[in-house]
Amino acid sequence: MAADLRFLHPNLLKRQLSRNAERAPNRKRRQFLCDVPYSEIVNGVLRAFLPLLSACAHDAAEYQHHFCGRNLRGERDDAMRLTIHARHFGRIRDLEGEWVRLHLKVDDAHGPLKIRSLMQFRGVPELGWIRCRGAAQTDTESVQRAQGLRAELEDVVDAWLDWIGDEFEYEFQHADPMSL
Question: Residue ranges of the domains in the chain?
């Protein structure tokens, strides 16, 4: 028995096909979290962590960003927050230099979310590691170090932002598909 497709709204079909194509492995990742460009968040992370990464001091720093999304109850939540903690870790055996460990935390309006198993399931690293650079001696060296740090932070933070966007994206559902 074939389904009657006369009542299928073409916009719903188009949107579903587009969403499936967007989630394909080779797709170009969206670069926004609730209309905030990833680059703006990465810039905030860089501003928050650059002193720690430059000084290699036994210290910690934190970056927070509020966003809208779907909480674990499936409800729209405008009070969600991502927090990235950075803490000087020191030397790691068999690796050169001093290291800073980055850790992601996500909260909704009800409190902290247990995201560890969700991240593991999706293959997203729970921790990020960045090597301290120490203070730059020249302006050129300072620019080069900032560019290197930015690239390393983008690798870590973009993976987390992509995961947050996939895991907590809130998609508005219309009650009446024919009202589109």
Answer: 32-169
